[in-house]
Design goal:
Elements: H1 3-10, E1 29-33, E2 38-44, E3 47-48, H2 57-64, E4 68-73, H3 75-78, H4 81-91, H5 99-102, H6 105-117, H7 130-144, E5 149-150, H8 152-163, E6 167-171, H9 173-181, H10 188-198, H11 202-215, H12 218-232, H13 234-255, E7 262-267, H14 277-283, E8 287-290
Parallel strand pairs: 2-7, 4-6, 4-7
Antiparallel strand pairs: 1-2, 1-8, 3-5
Helix pairs in contact: 1-11, 6-10, 7-10, 11-12, 12-13
Amino acid sequence: MTILKEIAITLLAAAALLLTSTSLHAASVWKVTNGENTVYFGGTVHILKAENFPLPVEYDKAYAASDKLVFESDIEGMQSPAFQQQMMSKVVLTDGTSLQTRLNPDTYAALKTYLDSKGMPILNFNSLKPSMVALTITMLEYQANGFDQDGVDKTFSKKAKADGKPVEWFESVDEQLAFIVNLGGDDDNAIINYTLNELDNLPTLIDDMLVSWKGGDLQKLNDTIVAEMATSSPQMYDDLIVKRNNNWMPKIMKMLDDKPTEFVLVGAAHLAGKDSVFALLEAKGYKITKVK
């Protein structure tokens, strides 16, 4: 698994293609029930191309049947000037180090070669933490490939606000900021190398993600993204998938014990694989069916 895949599916970015081969009734939307109460789940990607709209009708069905929406994070809060200012204060190096001193010579040289090819002087990035550099070049690559539309989560956040439908989230803006700042853990070189190594594979990566997402194919999503991440980047997998899924479970179980019907919209990678939210729910006896 690469940093590009994880960012795309779970945190900051996702790419999209026009997938005409996907079944009309396939979508990443499910219904979870304990026999009395229901929670809908929608797998999301976070930025899309214009041709990905309209979204599959199953999303609208779940939205119409729900009393409130629940997102990974406080989407509006993350767009506030206060959050942006706080984020910049966390991603700038203030300990006397620089990007060059944080990276080994080979990694720094590879990053410089990439940035030179894009006409971006590496000195412009020298005061940023490696995690922020990785996120920045990832976003630049997606934008260069035309991914400039709101994703599933932001689309429904806006819709809920317009309709006056209540919105909640699993993680605060401070928790999201911690994920961004600490992305890659203590290995500064790894996060840069993960990112650079996958840039050439971006079209294939995008295709794999979107086929899995739009078709609601959790097995393929696990095989091509989640399981690979668990093998090649176990620390990132644990931090961004396993720990977060387990942190969300008490809130999800509480939703299944009350009468209001929630529509939970989270990155699709959280719904696939042996450590997924769905695996945790199935182990507790909840029934999961695909919305059609």
